[in-house]
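re: ur question from earlier - yeah i can do the single chain one, its not a big deal. heres the input i used so u can compare w yours
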Amino acid sequence: MKPVLATVAALAGVSAPTVSKVINGRDDVAEATRARVQAALVELGYQSPMQRRARSAGPAMVDLVIDGTNTSYSMELLTGILDCAAAEDVDVVVGNITPAKLHRANHVEWAQRMVESGRNGLILVTSELTRQQLEAFQQRNISVVVIDPLNPPGQGYVSVGATNWAGGKAAAEHLISLGHRRIAFLGGPGGAECSVARLHGYLAALMGNGIPSRPEYILSGDFSQAFGLASTRELLALDEPPTAIFAGCDATALGVLEEARLQGIRVPDDLSLVGFDGTPLTEQTLPRLTSVAQPLQEMGRAALRAVLRLANGDVLDSPHVELATELVIRDSTAPPRA
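and the output i got, formated as C-alpha cells:
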C-alpha cells in the first residue's frame, strides 16, 4: 500500500498541509519540523506525484552497482547489460562500491534517492545484502536483481547465476580423466554461494572417482590474483604438493601461473591448472588457460531483462535464473608427470 500525505503526517506528528509544504519546497516550515517530515518521507518510501511521473516518463533508468568495474569478469557482464540496454532503450547508471562500503551504506536513504531520481530498478553484482537491506528497495517499488550473489538473497528476490556445481564437477573430472589424483581447490570467500557450489561440484567428482578429499588442498580467500599467488605458494610448500589446481576464478588462476613461474614450475608439464569464468584472459595467458566458461554477457542481459520485467509488474517464471557453464580445454592441463 502506497503511503499518502495523511500517513506521513501522522508519523511526523504534523498536519497534511505541512507535509505538502515540505514536499513542494516551501520555506515557511520550521527546520525541526521539516527534518521530522523528511525522515517520515524516507521511512515510508513516499513518492510524490512528480516523482512517480519521473519514473514513468521517458526511457527506463536502471542503476548497476558492481565491486570492481576494471576486472575482466565485470567488463563481460557490463558488455551484456549495455548491449541489452541499447536494444531496450534503457539508461544504465554504473557505480562502483566495495563490500565494506556496501554494508555501511544507509539502504533506506539509498532507495529513497533512487525514487527521487526516477530510477526503475537496481542490478547488484557479487554483493552480499541482508533481507532487511533489500526490503528498503522493495518498500519503494524498486526492483532488485543480484548477479552471482555472495549469499542467497532470500524468498521474493531475483538472482542470476550459472551452473556453478556442474562447472566445478566438470573441472575436477577433466583433471581426473588426465590421471591427476592430487587436485587442489582455490575458492572464493567461504560463505559465497557460487564458490560453495563450485567446491561441492569438485568434491562430488573426487568422491565419484574414489579419491579422498584432503583438507590441506582446499583453500578459500577472495576472487583475486593476490590470493592465487599466496595460496599456490602455500600448496607448493607441502610435503606432497598437488599435481593440479582448480582455481575458483580466472583472476585467481593468474596468480597461480605467476607463482608457478617464480618457482620454476612449468604449467602444464609440472602442474595442471583450470580456471573458472571463461573471461578473455584465458586466451591471453601463457599457456592459454583451460577454464569453465560462464555465459557472462548473457547473464548481464538476463539480469537487465529481469529487472525491467519486475519494474513493469510482471511475475517471473522463477526467482533464480541459472545459465549453463561449459568447460573449454586449452593448454594449461596435461597428464601428471610419471
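DSSP finds 13 helices and twelve strands in the chain. not sure if urs matches, ping me
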